[in-house]
Amino acid sequence: ADLFDGIVMAEQRFHGEGYQEGYAEGSHAGMAEGRRYGALHGARIGSEIGCYLGFALTWHCLLQKCTDEKSSKKIRALDSLIGMIQKFPYEDPTYDKLQEDLEKIRGKFKQVCSMLNIRSDFRIGTERSSLTF
């Protein structure tokens, strides 16, 4: 009876074993793919934020010597952008308002570009190497 029972239940047993092996392999592959995606996406965000910070600091230095009212408004907007970037939680990927704060920084960057009469979608170099946000 045990031999017959083993034959009848073989399909169910192999199905269960296959499921467990597939689940384990899929979990492992999913973790590896998630890490790669997270690293790539994090690097893109870091590069974007770094570009905004370099842009803001450079313009802040350039406008320091200007004393007119328009320049002081531009400097205040740059200070606001720099402050937003400095408060951005780089090291906390679980921060629930990460995308919201990133959109606010992008909006402030566009506002500063408008005040400085610079296109916010500026391009550098050839068509292949460009900065687009």
TrEMBL record:
* Alphabetical list of Pfam families matching this protein: Yae1_N
The record, for InterPro entries, names:
Essential_protein_Yae1_N, LTO1_adapter
> Where are its TM segments located?
none
Q: Where does the record place the Essential protein Yae1 N-terminal domain?
A: 18-56
* Ranges in coiled-coil conformation: none
- Write out the similarity annotation: Belongs to the LTO1 family.
Query: Know the name of this protein?
Result: ORAV1 protein
